[in-house]
Amino acid sequence: MQAARSLLGLLLCAASLARADMGLLKQHCGTCHSAEQNTEQAPSFKAISERYKSESEAAQARLAEVIAQGSAGRWGKLAMPPTPRVTALEARKLARWVLDF
């Protein structure tokens, strides 16, 4: 039930933003991240946006790098795996979408 709610929240939020690429979100992000609720696996898009929104351009570059290469220790014990099939442009688009959340 929680997973369905998280996915529904993700889909609703993504639909409201014209820049969101639903294919990328579903394929890469929606497995672990939800729109507004932190999960055991990952922080929500809202939490990420709130943490980094004041950094603007630098934050977008940093998040794009994390999306592409993965990270560990930023949000707890679990590591975010790299997503090598995401291009640099796609990673920047996803980062911008998260920061605009």
Blueprint (SSEs and pairs):
Blueprint: H1 2-16, H2 22-29, H3 45-52, H4 56-69, H5 88-99
Helix pairs in contact: 4-5
Explain this structure to me?
The structure is a single chain. By secondary structure, this protein is mainly alpha-helical. The protein has a single domain (2-99), classed as Orthogonal Bundle (Cytochrome Bc1 Complex, Chain D, domain 2). 56% of the residues lie in helices and 0% in strands. It is built from five helices and no strands. α4 (56-69) packs across α5.
Distinctive features:
globular; mainly alpha; Cytochrome Bc1 Complex, Chain D, domain 2; 101 residues
In short:
The two termini are 23 Å apart.
CATH class: Mainly Alpha
Query: Average pLDDT value?
Result: 79
Q: Helix proportion of residues, in percent? A: 55-70%
Q: What multimeric state do the chains show?
A: single chain
Order of helices and strands: HHHHH
- CATH architecture label name: Orthogonal Bundle
Helix/strand-derived category reads mainly alpha
Low-pLDDT regions = 16-20
Continuous helix count: 5
* Number of separate strands: 0
